[in-house]
Amino acid sequence: MPKPLRIDFVSDVSCPWCVIGLGGLEEALARVGDLIQADIHFQPFELNPDMPAEGQNITEHIAQKYGSTPEQSAASREAIRARAAQVGFAMAMTADSRIYNTFDAHRLLHWAEIEGRGSALKHRLFEIYFTEDQSPGDHEVLVEAAVLAGLDGDTAREVLTSGRYAQEVRAAERHWRDLGINGVPAVVIDNRYLISGGQPAAAFEQALRDIAAQLEFVSA
User: Fold this and answer.
1) Where are the domains of the chain?
2) What whole-number distance in Å separates Cα of residue 216 and Cα of residue 116?
3) Helices 103-114 and 153-162, interaxial angle, to 10°?
4) CATH fold for the domain made of 3-219
5) Whole-prediction pTM value?
6) Contact call for residues 38 and 5 (beta carbons, < 8 A)
7) Element (DSSP H or E) covering residue 36
8) Running DSSP on this structure, what letter comes out for residue 1?
């Protein structure tokens, strides 16, 4: 009988390692098959909560935040592109790409979770930013993403223009930070096991099997 597991995937839609981590997690879940019945919830985390609406050039941003040279940034993008390709994702960022504010995207994701379309919207938001080089802070882009994820466009626009779910998203962000999450992706399983970083599928698979075995032992 499959072990039911709640999985909280804490991430930002502008985090490339979150794309890699989600791909690895989903592949691992496919590998373990009927061993686990996963209930995935997407949780908000903003890497750059003070980013202005117009965003910032990615090379400039990385240089200011981490002290990286343009050459180091280019090498990092290439490594990320290769890792993303391993999970079937096309990462198309360049030195001219921009970092944007993602708070509204998280509000829309909160609503999508309520509607049971969180996974579909999460994947679409990754695509519009990392593959199509569109802003995840642009309301029209977000509405289109919602529609493609199977959500109602008019309701999506109302959510965005009204500021709905702002308090809920802020509260969730504080919750995860208060629990010690200060980097993403962070995968929290059954509120007690933490897997950090964009791990490959094999690492997620082993962790899931180990957790399932521990839970089987406890319930025996």
Assistant:
1) 3-219
2) 29
3) 130
4) Glutaredoxin (3.40.30)
5) 0.96
6) yes
7) strand 36-44
8) -
